[in-house]
């Protein structure tokens, strides 16, 4: 019996892993590399998957180790007396800590954490939807594609789309009420 | 043109308005309907809350081409595994 389904990993888990990674490594390219490595490592150790965890938590456990390795690698390159930090966005300048004095309008770490957890909770709920609903709901709601583009891609009519969206939204509201608002 | 929506129409307008795809007139009709229909009022409140919650999470997604290249690498690896 095949417990894992690697062909669907990217569609199902790439965004989840990405949101998990980006708050931890804060580098779009590095995050993608880590996800790619995670998938490949998962493929290699497929036999070790016992089906006790869900596919997603299993992949996350691999990703966690990859992230630790990533920081080990960075740290071993350091060993200098300077402190370099990476900024959250590209338009801020300078590489020195002093230039990044505390910004009172900056989001607190706590906010970021709550946000991350909420994001992952949403993606977990999407994961529970029937496959077609999940893809279309995500395209429409999170990636912000317009109705016409989605209808074309999946060869459905706008009224089909709205029925799918309506069902997905209903399940999503229920799922989040159960897993998040409680 | 009628001014009063039925419940299923109201629900449909409510869904579309979550994506800014309802016209001003439609939204007005929805408001009227909600005034008199408690069931749809509850639904609209829940629906809007869902939209706000998702927005507040500020989720990031990979671009389609980035996903495509991830898929390609993974597929390559799967194929290699099958041959050996």
Q: In angstroms, what is the radius of gyration of chain B?
A: 22 Å
Q: Let me know the largest β-sheet of chain B.
A: none
* Order of SSEs of chain A: HHHHHHH
Mean pLDDT of chain B, to the nearest integer, reads 90
Number of strands of chain B: 0
What is the oligomer described by this structure?
Answer: heterodimer
How far apart are the termini of chain A? 37 Å
Word description of this protein:
The complex is a heterodimer of chains A (182) and B (84). Chain A is mostly helical. Chain A has two domains: 6-77, Rna Polymerase Sigma Factor, Chain: A (Orthogonal Bundle), CATH 1.10.1740; 109-179, Arc Repressor Mutant, subunit A. Chain A has helices at residues 9-25, 28-44, 55-77, 109-128, 131-141, 147-154, 158-179. The radius of gyration of chain A is 20 Å and the shape is globular. In chain A, 23% of the residues are buried. The model of chain A has no long low-confidence stretch (mean pLDDT 84). Helix content of chain B is 76%, strand content 0%. Chain B has 84 residues and is mostly helical. Chain B starts with 6 loop residues before the first helix and ends with a helix. Chain B has one domain (7-83). Chain B contains four helices and no strands. The longest helix of chain B has 20 residues, at 38-57. Classes of the chains: A mainly alpha (182), B mainly alpha (84). Chain A binds chain B through residues 6-7, 9-11, 14-15, 18-19, 22, 32, 35-36, 39-40, 43, 115, 118-119, 122-123, 138, 140-143, 147, 162, 165-166, 169, 172-173, 176, 180, and chain B through 11-12, 15-16, 18-19, 21, 46-47, 49-50, 53-54, 56-62, 66-67, 70-71, 73-75, 77-78, 81.
What is the secondary structure topology, with strand pairs?
The complex is a heterodimer of chains A (182) and B (84).
Chain A: H1 9-25, H2 28-44, H3 55-77, H4 109-128, H5 131-141, H6 147-154, H7 158-179
Chain B: H1 7-17, H2 24-36, H3 38-57, H4 64-83
Helix pairs in contact in B: 1-2, 1-3, 2-3
